[in-house]
């Protein structure tokens, strides 16, 4: 299937939201399966633009009572425009399905790449962390906290640029929140302890991801959820002897995995950190 077409032909510009139906698309191979439906690569017939269609079954949405979460995810994602955030161009529904028209991430899941190479080079890790910090700074400016950044929710486009996908757990609010959500390994202490939390939860997650990118496992991994919980709350952080990771990288991780929210490194400070400045490719594209 052809690569994505120029900006002018993107599907959101050829139709008004709600005017779509499945007959507007040639459906290609399945890309993956999520909890609530399947994702296919597809081509919009008129513009020939390649997209990903996420097909969700209304029965499942009703059964798990996720209607509000989905609506919130769709509203937030359509409003965001950033090179490192997966675009949601529009959606439509029929009697059985809700179909989301998404930007196609040709490179698939970052998680797959990490599993294939066990851990990333410092240059690759720093490039992804910079891309994430820039995308999150944009989200935070718009009062959006993602709260569920993890490798499975990060996709790569055909150039290898990181894209944050899946806004299912994000919230748009100026106020402090109090709902437990997300996957334990990536959660900040204030979230696992069910305390009020704010934007700083995403900064903590960048520390977790930075560690996982460089060492291949998240820092507080344990046999049981209870043990992971204990390790997060105590910030039981240690660095393995192998692979060898620079002291600058360890410095950034140590400054992000800080229990006291007021002392946790800000997104701006992450972007200016010597390890990022030295290693990250500002184009967000990495080939090594
Ligand atoms: P999800 O239901 O969002 O968890 O998606 C299931 C799987 O489909 C993901 O893990 C990805 O491998 C794949 N996928 C989802 N969205 C896209 C996309 N926009 N482009 C390419 N692959 C995708």
UniProtKB/TrEMBL annotation:
The covalent link annotated as Glycyl lysine isopeptide (Lys-Gly) (interchain with G-Cter in SUMO2) occurs at 150
* Catalytic reaction annotation: L-seryl-[protein] + ATP = O-phospho-L-seryl-[protein] + ADP + H(+); L-threonyl-[protein] + ATP = O-phospho-L-threonyl-[protein] + ADP + H(+)
Gene3D superfamilies per the UniProt record, alphabetical: Phosphorylase Kinase, domain 1, Transferase(Phosphotransferase) domain 1
* Molecular function terms from GO: ATP binding; protein serine/threonine kinase activity
- Coiled-coil stretches are none
**Residues that, per the record, bind ATP:** 35, 54, 103-105, 152-153, 166
The UniProt keywords, alphabetically, are: ATP-binding, Kinase, Nucleotide-binding, Serine/threonine-protein kinase, Transferase
Reply yes or no: does the keyword Nucleotide-binding apply.
yes
Carries keyword ATP-binding?
yes
Q: What is its EC number?
A: 2.7.11.1
- The record places the active site at 148
Q: Where is the Protein kinase domain?
A: 25-276
The family note in this entry says: Belongs to the protein kinase superfamily. Ser/Thr protein kinase family. Aurora subfamily.
PANTHER family in UniProt: SERINE/THREONINE-PROTEIN KINASE IAL-RELATED
Q: Output this protein's name.
A: Aurora kinase
The species this protein was found in: Rosa chinensis
């Amino acid at each position: 299937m052809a690569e994505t077409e120029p900006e002018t032909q993107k599907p959101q510009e050829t139709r008004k939201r709600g005017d779509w139906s499945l007959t507007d698309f040639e459906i290609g191979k399945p890309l993956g399966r999520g909890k609530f439906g399947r994702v296919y690569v597809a081509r919009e017939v008129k513009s020939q633009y390649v997209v990903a269609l996420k097909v969700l079954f209304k029965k499942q949405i009703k059964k798990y009572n996720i209607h509000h979460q989905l609506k919130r995810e769709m509203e937030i994602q359509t409003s965001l425009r950033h090179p490192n955030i997966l675009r949601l161009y529009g959606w439509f529904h029929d009697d059985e399905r809700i179909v989301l028209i998404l930007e196609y991430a040709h490179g698939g899941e970052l998680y797959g790449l990490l599993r294939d190479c066990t851990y990333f080079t410092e240059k690759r890790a720093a490039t992804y962390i910079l891309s994430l910090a820039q995308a999150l700074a944009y989200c935070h400016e718009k009062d959006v906290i993602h709260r569920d950044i993890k490798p499975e929710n990060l996709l790569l486009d055909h150039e290898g640029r990181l894209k944050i996908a899946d806004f299912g757990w994000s919230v748009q609010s100026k106020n402090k929140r109090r709902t437990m959500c997300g996957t334990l390994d990536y959660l900040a202490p204030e979230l696992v302890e069910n305390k009020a939390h704010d934007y700083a939860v995403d900064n903590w997650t960048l520390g977790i991801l930075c560690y996982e990118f460089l060492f291949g496992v998240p820092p507080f991994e344990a046999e049981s959820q209870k043990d992971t919980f204990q390790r997060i709350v105590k910030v039981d952080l240690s660095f393995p002897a192998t692979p060898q990771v620079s002291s600058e990288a360890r410095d950034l991780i140590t400054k992000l995995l800080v229990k006291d929210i007021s002392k946790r490194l800000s997104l701006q400070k992450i972007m200016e950190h010597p390890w990022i400045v030295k290693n990250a490719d500002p184009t967000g594209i990495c080939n090594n």
